[in-house]
């Protein structure tokens, strides 16, 4: 129970935005005592001490009562353990005392508790009769530690509003309520996959667990969760059984029934796709914070204590994680993930396929601690008979028949009759919501399809064959030509050939498999990561070479009166030199920095309002790390660029002036140029890149990120960065270069650096180098280079890639999860990826027979 008191104190302190040192200064309690209480290492729990801490934290009356109840339970548990160890009569559990007292009463109690002379000690009280062990003081699982106020409360309110809006829109996209939600039902999970009932109900020693009623269906999932005292629930089900739909409905029901935000008491339920988590490298709280920052940019603002609002919400226990897809973790990570979840006490909901979760439980020798469990059951024939006819168009009745009929009536009658392998196969397939929705898409919404073909045993000899048919027909059906009309969301209507759409979607699915076996997040800034590193480096070299060459061709005729041939040759030489420099740096950073190197920037350029050293100094250390990383990258690239420029200058003099390149004096001069240009470009690029990093501050965004909005925001951010870097490059190279050359006159002179030469080099570096930086080192630049040019050029994506992704979302093939897309279901993703790979293996170049 000590850990419960410590956890509560730590949550209250973090919610107040105070450090242990600040609480110690306000309360007069030593930092060592506070630390021991929060870590559960203190065995001496004095009410006076807790009084002082409560006053210092300025907790609400409700929080005082919770502290009192938790303290009473702690004392009871300690007394019970002491009595057992000494084989003495059990002591009575102390009564929970209210903490809402006057400050002078706290001081009086502290004095009364202090030891005095023997003659002043009060006589011992008569022993009280033994009482039953006190239950653990466990808050409601869906409630926050207490009423939330201030900036953190407002952040929770905005987050809840975004979550509610996002998942309502997702339900509309999936037609969940048309004609009505499929009635997903469940049963209790096997006992071996859940914790003991006493632990689930968080009972004290010796208490007996009451029978926990977990029965219900999709409409009552939030109510079932409220019955679980620990706030931990495992949802099991096979692929397509409705786990994702259940989590969406759970989040919406919870948000609609409990207040969130200033004065509210509810945690904010947030769905996280667990397949992207690596528990061996990232702590759960850090990963949850990263996901919140990605999908909700406004949470990047600094909150109480100097941390981001996302981190503050997690630390204050104001987020209820709904972890979707435990089975999507790599097999080797599941045991570590379960161990990491067991090391935390936060309420959460976890979904998984049963075999993968059971294997992890066996490997970890423990289920998810404190967790109850439910397992989704198959849809029944009665459910299908009520649902499918209402999704389909009416057909003309047979002669003499009465009433309305649908294309499903005959199939449902066949399934009820049973008795044949074909009927058994189709009945087995239509037991999951995924297959029912696919069947609805193929046959209820299509005017020329008859579901009776699903009973053809020759075409579909197994249930697996029926499933593959439904998966294979989904994309061609949703991309079939439609009558002209305004598209959803406005804008010009787009049409895509079904076979080309399937090819492009197959590439995207294959791209996710290449990144990670079970990866689902389709992020636009990672769209080129499926390409080999050598291919990406080649694209960077060509793109940056073109940027610098074009800048040279535009600027040289303005500053110098030279012929078109010389201008073209100069640009043609300088471009590849710059391309090789940027390509070399890109290759090194990509090989050692991983995919996170080019994450989208949620920043704007302004002077920081917080100086290093304020708010604990963490801000200053962060700026220092970012500056150093950018400075080293710029220094490396600039040095390579300077070396290449010296070589290009030598080649130009050899072509136009006939300078012998093997002459010792010429080689010496080239070596000096390499040093000078390398230092000028390296130091200038390092300083500029580092300065831009130091001026980056989070954008104050008021709405959740979507893929298109985040892309637009990054395009604007990159434009502002370029506007800052171009003039800085020009001035730094033109005048800083002159200063550096003057310093090198002694050891390397005589050296020449005229103002026109400095301005020319500076302007070309500012425009061309700035554009090359954008292409190479920003998320939007990577998207532009690969998503808008390279992949469309090679036929793997359409040229209008953004419109295609957004259209795929509107057609129901993709879904949005914050700033990323995902395929509607992991099975659809796997099917499209496998189909794409099969077509690539079977591809043969066309041959042309002269005789035909």
Word description of this protein:
Helix 13 links the parallel strand 4 (319-324) and strand 5 (348-352). 43% of the residues are buried. The chain has 5 domains: 2-119, lambda repressor-like DNA-binding domains (434 Repressor (Amino-terminal Domain), Orthogonal Bundle), CATH 1.10.260.40; 150-376, 3-Layer(aba) Sandwich (Rossmann fold); 381-474, no CATH class; 497-527 and 799-841, Arc Repressor Mutant, subunit A, CATH 1.10.10; 536-796, no CATH class. 56% of the residues lie in helices and 6% in strands. The protein is mainly alpha-helical. Strands 1-6-2-5-4-3 form a 6-stranded mixed beta sheet. Strands 7-8 form a two-stranded antiparallel ribbon.
Beta-strand portion reads: 5-15%
Q: Please report the distance between the alpha carbons of the first and last residues.
A: 86 Å
Global structural class: mainly alpha
> How do the strands line up in the largest sheet?
1-6-2-5-4-3
Which residues sit in consecutive blocks of at least 5 with pLDDT less than 50?
A: 82-139, 484-492, 609-619, 699-704, 844-852
Discrete helix count: 30
Q: In angstroms, what is the radius of gyration?
A: 34 Å
- Largest beta-sheet details: 6 strands, mixed
Average pLDDT reading: 79
When the domains are counted, the total is 5
Specify the helix fraction band: 55-70%
Shape: flat
How many DSSP-defined strands?
Answer: 12
């Amino acid at each position: 129970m000590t850990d419960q008191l410590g956890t509560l104190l730590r949550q209250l302190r973090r919610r107040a935005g105070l450090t242990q040192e600040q609480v110690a200064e306000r309360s007069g309690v030593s930092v060592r005592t506070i630390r021991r209480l929060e870590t559960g290492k203190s065995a001496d729990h004095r009410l006076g001490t807790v009084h002082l801490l409560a006053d210092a934290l300025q907790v609400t009356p409700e929080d005082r009562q919770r502290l009192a109840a938790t303290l009473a339970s702690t004392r009871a548990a300690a007394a019970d353990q002491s009595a057992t160890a000494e084989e003495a009569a059990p002591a009575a559990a102390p009564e929970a005392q209210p903490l809402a007292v006057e400050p002078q009463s706290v001081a009086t109690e502290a004095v009364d508790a202090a030891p005095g002379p023997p003659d002043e000690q009060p006589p011992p009280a008569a022993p009280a009769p033994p009482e039953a062990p006190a239950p653990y003081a466990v808050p409601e699982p869906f409630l926050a530690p207490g009423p939330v106020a201030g900036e953190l409360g407002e952040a929770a309110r905005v987050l809840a509003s975004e979550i509610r809006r996002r998942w309502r829109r997702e339900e509309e996209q999936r037609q969940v309520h048309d004609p009505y939600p499929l009635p997903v039902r469940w049963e209790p999970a096997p006992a071996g996959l859940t914790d003991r009932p006493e632990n689930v109900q968080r009972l004290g020693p010796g208490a007996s667990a009451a029978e926990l009623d977990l029965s219900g269906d999709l409409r009552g999932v939030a109510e079932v969760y409220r019955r679980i005292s620990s706030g931990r629930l495992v949802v099991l089900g096979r692929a397509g059984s409705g786990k994702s739909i259940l989590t969406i409905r759970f989040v919406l029901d919870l948000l609609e029934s409990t207040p969130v935000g200033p004065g509210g008491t509810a945690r904010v339920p947030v769905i996280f796709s667990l397949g992207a988590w690596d528990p061996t490298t990232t702590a759960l709280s850090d990963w949850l914070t990263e996901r919140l920052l990605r999908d909700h940019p406004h949470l990047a603002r600094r909150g109480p204590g100097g941390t981001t609002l996302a981190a503050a919400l997690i630390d204050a226990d104001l987020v209820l994680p709904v972890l979707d897809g435990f089975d999507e973790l790599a097999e080797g990570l599941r045991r570590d993930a379960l161990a990491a979840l067991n090391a935390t006490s936060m309420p959460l909901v976890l979904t998984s396929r049963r075999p993968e979760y059971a294997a992890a439980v066996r490997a970890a020798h423990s289920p998810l601690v404190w967790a109850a469990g439910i397992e989704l059951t198959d849809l029944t024939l009665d459910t299908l008979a009520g649902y499918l006819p209402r999704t389909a168009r009416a057909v003309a009745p047979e002669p003499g028949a009465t009433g309305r009929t649908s294309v499903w009536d005959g199939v449902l009658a066949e399934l009820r009759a049973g008795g044949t392998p074909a009927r058994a196969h189709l009945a087995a397939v239509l037991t999951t919501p995924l297959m029912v929705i696919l069947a609805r898409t193929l046959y209820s919404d299509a005017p020329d399809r008859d579901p009776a073909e699903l009973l053809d045993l020759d075409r579909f000899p197994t249930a697996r064959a029926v499933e593959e048919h439904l998966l294979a027909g989904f994309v061609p059906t949703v991309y079939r030509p439609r009558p002209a009309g305004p598209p959803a969301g406005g804008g010009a209507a787009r049409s895509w050939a079904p076979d080309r759409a399937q090819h492009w979607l197959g590439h995207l699915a294959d791209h996710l498999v290449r990144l990670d076996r079970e990866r689902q997040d389709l992020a636009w800034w990672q769209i080129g990561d499926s390409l080999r590193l050598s291919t990406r480096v080649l694209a960077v070299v060509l793109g940056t070479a073109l940027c610098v060459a074009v800048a040279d061709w535009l600027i040289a005729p303005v500053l110098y009166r030279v012929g078109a041939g010389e201008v073209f040759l100069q640009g043609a030489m300088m471009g590849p030199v710059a391309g090789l420099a940027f390509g070399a740096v890109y290759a090194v950073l990509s090989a050692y920095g991983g995919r996170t190197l080019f994450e989208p920037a949620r920043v704007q350029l302004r002077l920081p309002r917080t100086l290093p050293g304020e708010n604990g100094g963490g801000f200053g250390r962060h700026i220092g790390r970012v500056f150093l990383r950018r400075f080293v990258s710029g220094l490396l690239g600039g040095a390579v660029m300077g070396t290449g420029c010296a070589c290009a200058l030598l080649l130009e003099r050899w072509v136009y002036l006939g300078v012998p390149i093997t002459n010792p004096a010429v080689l010496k001069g080239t070596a000096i140029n390499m040093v000078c240009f390398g230092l000028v470009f390296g130091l200038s690029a390092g300083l500029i890149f580092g300065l831009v990093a130091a001026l980056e501050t989070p954008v104050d965004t008021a709405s959740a990120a979507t893929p298109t909005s985040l892309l637009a925001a990054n395009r604007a951010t990159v434009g502002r960065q370029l506007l800052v870097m171009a003039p800085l490059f020009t001035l730094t190279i033109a005048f800083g270069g002159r200063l550096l050359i003057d310093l090198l006159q002694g050891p390397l002179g005589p050296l020449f650096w005229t103002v026109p030469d400095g301005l020319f080099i500076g302007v070309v570096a500012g425009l061309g180098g700035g554009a090359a930086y954008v292409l190479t080192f920003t998320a939007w630049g990577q998207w532009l280079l690969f998503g808008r040019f390279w992949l469309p050029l090679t036929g793997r994506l359409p040229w209008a890639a953004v419109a295609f992704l957004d259209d795929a979302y509107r057609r129901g093939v993709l879904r949005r999860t914050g700033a990323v897309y995902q395929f509607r279901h992991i099975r659809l993703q796997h099917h499209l990826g496998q189909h794409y790979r099969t077509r690539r293996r079977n591809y043969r170049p066309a041959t042309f027979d002269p005789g035909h």
